[in-house]
Amino acid sequence: MENCTKPAPSPSDYRKLMRRTRRALSDRQRHQAAQAAMRQLIKLDDLLPKGANIGFYLAGFGELPTDGIVSFCQRRGHQAYLPITTSEQPLSFAPIHGNLNQTPLKKHRLGMYEPVTKPILAAAQMDAIICPVVAVDMTGVRLGMGGGYYDRTFARTTDCLKVAWCYDFQIVPSLPRQPWDMVVDVIISDQRFIRP
């Protein structure tokens, strides 16, 4: 009898599947998932110093919404930062002042918004960086959009807590790991808090 095991999806297949699945969610489903993930986010407290610098991203392409991360930081005395991208460089981070509506933003070449606030900090000055994923496996291998920004950043930030923020359906059994792939330390979804 022939072996009929199906090959694991390629990174390209995962990207198409996850984007399609994310786009199919209603605004209500996104909001409910974000609220549930915020309840998981509280578990980060035990892993963070007081007054932590926490970098996160603005969801703009169907990712799990991140708006609530600012209020989480404010309630717990942490400072929230958003990433600034420069070509082929690790990310740097600029602070959120007040709430997102009070922080001046500009659109950069990749179509995302980034702050124009100061002071700009290197990724190594972040205590935690919450990053987007297309998919992540149970060992912390992360599949991103393919630009390598977070892998380059994480390669230079050994003490920073690397946190994947995603819908639970984005957690998959296993992903192939390339030599440049940096694993995450924590996975937070709308259903689970995982320490790989």
TrEMBL record:
What is this enzyme's catalytic activity, as reactions? (6S)-5-formyl-5,6,7,8-tetrahydrofolate + ATP = (6R)-5,10-methenyltetrahydrofolate + ADP + phosphate
Q: Which residues bind ATP?
A: 142-150
Q: Which residue ranges traverse the bilayer? A: none
Record has Hydrolase as a keyword? no
What InterPro entries does the annotation carry?
FTHF_cligase, FTHF_cligase-like_sf, NagB/RpiA_transferase-like
Enzyme Commission code(s) on record: 6.3.3.2
Q: Which NCBIfam families match?
A: MTHFS_bact
Instruction: Please give the family membership noted in the entry.
Output: Belongs to the 5-formyltetrahydrofolate cyclo-ligase family.
Q: By what name is this protein known?
A: 5-formyltetrahydrofolate cyclo-ligase
Q: Which organism is it from?
A: Moraxella porci DSM 25326
